[in-house]
Design brief:
homodimer, alpha+beta, 60s Ribosomal Protein L30, Chain: A, Phosphoribosyl-aminoimidazole Synthetase, Chain A, domain 2, 2 domains, 7-stranded mixed beta sheet, 4-stranded mixed beta sheet, 8 helices, globular
């Protein structure tokens, strides 16, 4: 076949035979190569550093598949890396599933796998096992990924919503809603354009930097449903009020403008490189300074606190008023991550 | 809402808000409940018995979603359990990703998740972390699953194609092509009907039973592409001839008839509860007897051997002739697993 000719995924690329082997070896394994990935084996054999681990999984269906600041491939790495990171673990090994739709272009798939390889390399993780399935045209949407990850727990700190206490402070490491807005703009369905980049990135540096603080209670990456959904989960779990200060919440000007035009609330939009931490009041300032000193953490902010009260999320507005941030019902933006 | 009213998956079931929580808690977590599964956490915290593990992943897109002998849910458990089992590991912890299409019926999804729970319980594995995504109508096909699994390696035996030697025997634990044929019949597109059941099941009893045999070289579950594809992989890896005896290969009468009518070769059809083992000649008979003594292993058979020669798979036919089993090019049956 002429290499300059555009190639497309066919059903034969999913049948267990020669084409599938070529797809896996020439595209996935070539870019994602590492000593532990052996496409001849059903399972990877690993020797862990210890027996205390974190294990997580995430699925990715973002549309469009490529957007400013990332692709579905880099997202599939960052998402699972971040789920491990907020659990206080160091991400090590990932598995990768690809559901590819018949007719997808090899060239685009290769760009996506390359961005995946780069994200994995930056986060220090190895993809050690994988599987590809090809679904007939019309039964997929380009490509969906699922990644699972194993991380090593290096610290005995016990994190969880159950650790949260009245008076604790809520921190975020940067601006909110960038990912959701960037993907929305990339769809071009609203006739809006902008140079906003997704915030998609590993949050490992942020999560690791706080693990030595005894007052750290809980961390979470505010993806689907955004900050408001994380806060709703917290308030429901601890049956106390989560109080947010609007003036302290970092939001990019462009996100603010786009949301105003389209009627979205940035507090409900997905981030893919942000982390929300709940920390004891006496260590909140120290945590903030640690985060602000990390490259990219300049906009970190203490955005709220836990107050005795009922299980509500309350936003204290710029004008001094208060408004409830309800749990999400309708989906503002399907296929955002 | 009236419980008797049929409910359907909507995009709001994927948005990180209330509906998603209900879908996860009331449907997935309720049926898959175990002490390690906590839907409030991004990652499961696990303490492994040891640091030597196997890690694998598999995606599932079978159509129809339910078929005689299983569902896409039970398949998603058995497939990953079996990938760990053939690596010589004992499967322990699974992650689960669900890509659900908008409009799918709750009732059907619940049946599928129940069959998944039953398969997990039978195989002794716990689903400890999961994620659901809902994709808009027309961008999926009911539901796709991806499962990743962690297994414990209890034995130092080194398995792999590189261990295979000339003279080794090839064993299979039962009839071939049942799964592929059962799924094909369930599609009813050929106007054929039958009572054939998929062979979908855990192969752990078979794989564990051989681990004490020093002569065991390699095990593989012949899923996509069937026995012929596994044998092609072996012959290509070791650059020797894989020689199969047609008269010794167990094939269900009904599979034989259906394949004859439709022009399929059962040796290329997927199995989901079968294992192919390569073992030193002097221990092959012992291995066969071990397998035949396992309930369901009555049809186990020594079906071939490794011969010095070129990298071909040769079928010695009933009439004494020989025919090459080539590597698969076209997909005979898309969405079979």
């Amino acid at each position: 076949m002429n290499d300059k000719q555009e190639k497309f995924i066919s059903l034969a690329h999913g049948n267990g035979g020669r084409y599938m082997r070529e797809l896996i070896d020439d595209l996935f394994a070539r870019h994602l190569a590492n000593p532990l990935l052996n496409t001849q084996n059903d399972a990877a054999s690993l020797t862990l550093e210890q027996t205390e681990i974190a294990f997580t999984t995430d699925g990715f269906t973002v549309n469009p598949l490529e957007f400013p600041g990332g692709t579905i491939g880099s997202l599939a790495i960052h998402g699972t890396v971040n789920d491990l990171a907020v659990a206080g673990a160091i991400p090590k090994y990932l598995s990768l599933n690809a559901f590819i739709e018949e007719g997808m272009s090899f060239t685009q798939l290769e760009r996506i796998v390359k961005s995946m390889a780069q994200a994995a390399s930056e986060a220090g993780v190895a993809i050690v096992t994988g599987d590809t399935k090809v679904v007939p045209r019309g039964e997929g949407a380009g490509v969906f990924f699922a990644t699972s990850g194993i991380g090593i727990k290096t610290n005995n700190i016990s994190l969880g919503m159950s650790q949260i206490k009245t008076g604790d402070k809520i921190l975020v490491n940067g601006t909110l809603g960038d990912h959701g807005t960037a993907v929305m703009l990339a769809r071009e369905q609203f006739g809006l354009k902008g140079d906003l980049q997704s915030d998609a990135a590993s949050v490992l540096a942020y999560t690791q930097s706080l693990l030595s603080l005894e007052g750290l209670r809980f961390m979470r990456d505010p993806t689907r449903g955004g900050l408001a959904s994380v806060c709703n989960e917290i308030s429901r779990a601890i049956k106390q009020e989560v109080h947010l200060f609007q003036t302290e919440i970092p939001i990019h000007d462009q996100v603010e403008s786009v949301c105003e035009i389209l009627g979205y609330d940035p507090l409900y939009l997905a981030c893919e490189g942000r982390v929300v931490a709940v920390i004891a009041e006496e260590q909140a300032q120290q945590a903030l300074e640690i985060w602000q000193a990390i490259e990219g953490g300049e906009n970190a902010s203490i955005i709220g606190e836990i107050k005795a009260g009922d299980a509500y999320v309350v936003l204290q507005t710029e004008l001094g008023g208060e408004r409830f941030l309800e749990e999400l019902e309708d989906d503002p933006l399907p296929r955002i991550c």
